[in-house]
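Box 3.1 A note on notation
Throughout this textbook, protein chains are presented in two layers. The first layer is the amino acid sequence; the second is a token string describing backbone geometry. Keep the layers aligned when reading.
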Amino acid sequence: MKIALIYGGRSGEHEISLISAASILRGIDFKKHSVTLIGIAKNGIWYLQDEAEGKRVRESEGPLTINEDEKNTVSIIPGKKGSSFVCAGKALDIDVVFPALHGTYGEDGKIQGLFEMADVPYVGCTTMASAITMDKEKTKMIWQSLGLPVVPYVCMKKNVMLDSVLYDAFLDETEKELGYPMFVKPCCAGSSNGAAKAANRKELSFALMQAFQWDEKVLIEKSINAREIECSVTGNSVTFPPEASDGNEDGINSEEVTAYIPGEIAPTHTFYDFDAKYNDPDGAALIIPAELSENDLEKIRKTACAAYKALDATGLSRVDFFIDKDTKAVYLNEINTMPGFTSISMFPKMCEAAGLSFSNLIDLLLDEAIKKHESSSQLMTSR
């Protein structure tokens, strides 16, 4: 299979993408596949990378880099199917795209829509599911509508922040409804960018100012004295019949969707922030399987499948939970449709703990991408 591995991007998670993509590249079985590397610079320009860059990374432990050579800019021509990607006037031979992109312009439906227009198979969620899951408020609204448990929250829009009367009234109501401490996070950002914990109104106001630098909407959540549990999920909840699923002994198979062994994040920081995730090697302990009873592990897996399917997710996601240490109540926290693939990332580790190796995981995701595209290609678009 001829794979285009796309990485970088216009995102606050650009550097994480360089690491994830390098891990994916090293995990690809080159006896079965070939890879074309396409790096997206921070200004959004796409560049074809030299084969030597792939060879360098496969033989080392470092991240990928992006050589911004103007001669190697990449364009996309919609509707050209296998020859949609063009560099220096020549079409690139590509069967499927693996977008190792995190956050804005990577997980939010924008690039997925571009792939749809180009009529090329790609790993991960559809345009609609990517856009919805990127928005934490809309995700919670869908889960709530189906009776799935979420942490109590309110959502503030930027126009409220700019009106002192509205702002004070909003904070008064939020304090009554949620109480301190609270968590503040941008609705449409990842890797805990712009997220903070607030113990009083002064800290809340500062956290809101920081969060609004990342997004036009901000989520304010009740703080839970919680354990952080995560669960890897794969499958195409929209297109696959039940018999098409690749279940395994250690996974819970909910029709066409498979959830793997849940893990637990035990952060050493105040919460699992950006530094704990990526900069501090001792920022958190990763416990797989999570130290829960078998009944609780099964509950997490089944809820993860339900949350995944509620959003019409396809390909892969990591579903994150809170378990209240005081009441033992289980809450859905977030869903990440292109989770990290770094050497310390939970998504591949949880799959591996269930018996799905990194290389086989990549093959599964590529196969799902092809099947999803084949299914959607059969739909009518005109008379």
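The chain has twelve helices and 18 strands. The first helix runs from residue 14 to 27.
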